[in-house]
Design a protein that fits this description.
Elements (H helix, E strand, L loop, with lengths): L3 E7 L20 H13 L5 H5 L6 H4 L2 H17 L6 E8 L3 H8 L5 H13 L8 E6 L9 H15 L6 E7 L2 E6 L1 H10 L8 E2 L12 H10 L12 E2 L5 E2 L6 H14 L2 E2 H12 L3 E4 L7 H10 L8 H10 L3 E3 L3
Parallel strand pairs: 1-2, 1-10, 2-7, 4-9, 10-11
Antiparallel strand pairs: 3-5, 3-6, 4-5, 7-8
């Protein structure tokens, strides 16, 4: 029997929640690397990942901070990635959302284990002394998961209105399926929360998230370049899809361009997760999308992207739910 072709999708920040405590316990695939990561974090005066994951209680003030959340997510995702049965499944491409780009580099072989951790820990710790701005998430879909053009226009108008204020800067940070993640400076985020019409739990400000993927992180990008210049990039072993929908191929990747995209472009410009999944579907036509844990925070967004593209003939949220019940196309390992 031939192997099933899969595209692996890596989660971003915010995917490790209180439900994920204990994810790393007894994960034999990560046992040795986890020990090394714990030693490295202890050396840097951080609590070990084993300590954080094994805590009795999830503390928002601790577990959601970038310097802790990012490496926790990396370890959990890598355990899932290592446990994919390669006899039955062939990984034909890897993509990710936001921080998931760093995981994509790690799992595709662009960076070795130590450099992967250095990149993830360094970028996760860049705002340790204080967040730069913030992020707000807002829906652009109706109840059937179809895009509502009126909501898209509304967001565009509100961004334009807020940016006319001298003290405000706001941007689209991430295209996330049926949602826009908006980001801005402190005053800009305040205006977003006030001006976006209330809809159930939205607008919602993401906890301990800075203004990722915007020009506001110019200093962070420059600091990262200075601190991570020794990272050794290699060509990916499988195709990887970035936040512009570009495919970086094993034999044709320009390593200087990949480095620049990682530490400059995607730090400062909008991350289009929607486009990356569209490309994954249309260019690779996989048998399944496999979403790594922890959690399932991208499951809905991926379903919404499938609806937008009418993939597998699904046109609504109900269609997606029925497909998942009968013959799941999206395999969420975090569940």
């Amino acid at each position: 029997m031939s192997k099933k072709r899969i595209v692996v999708v890596c989660p971003g920040r915010g995917s490790y929640t209180k439900e994920n405590l204990g994810t790393l316990i007894d994960r034999t695939s990560m046992k040795e690397e986890l020990r090394l990561l714990d030693e490295e974090r202890t050396r840097l005066n951080y609590p070990s990942l084993s300590e954080l994951d094994g805590a009795e209680k999830f503390k928002t003030s601790v577990h959601t901070k970038g310097e802790h959340a990012s490496p926790l997510i990396y370890a959990c995702s890598k355990a899932d990635f290592l446990e994919i049965n390669r006899e039955d499944y062939e990984v034909v491409a890897i993509a990710g959302n936001s921080m998931g780009w760093y995981l994509t580099l790690a799992f595709s072989g662009v960076l070795d284990e130590l450099d992967s951790y250095r990149l993830i820990q360094t970028m996760g710790s860049m705002m340790e002394e204080g967040l730069i701005g913030g992020q707000v998430i807002y829906p652009i879909i109706d109840k059937t998961w179809n895009i509502d053009p009126k909501k898209e226009k509304l967001i565009s108008n509100i961004l334009k209105e807020i940016n006319e204020r001298q003290e405000c800067e706001v941007f689209v940070s991430i295209h996330l399926g049926g949602y826009k993640v908006l980001a801005g400076n402190k005053e800009g985020v305040k205006q977003l929360l006030e001006k976006l019409p209330k809809q159930e739990n939205y607008p919602f400000q993401l906890v301990n998230h800075g203004a990722f993927h915007t020009p506001l992180l110019k200093d962070i990008s420059e600091k990262a370049e200075h601190g991570l210049y020794q990272l050794k990039f290699s060509k990916p072993k499988v195709p990887i899809i970035d936040g512009e929908g570009k495919i970086w191929q094993p034999y044709s990747t320009d390593l200087k361009n990949l480095y620049d995209y990682t530490l400059k472009t995607q730090v400062l410009e909008t991350y289009n997760f929607t486009k990356s999944i569209e490309v994954a579907l249309k260019e690779f036509a996989p048998d399944h999308l496999v979403l790594l844990g922890p959690g399932n925070s991208l499951g809905g967004a991926i379903g919404q992207i499938m609806v937008q593209n009418q993939w597998k003939g699904i046109k609504t949220k109900e269609d997606f739910s029925n497909l998942q019940l009968k013959k799941p196309f999206l395999i969420s390992l975090g569940l």
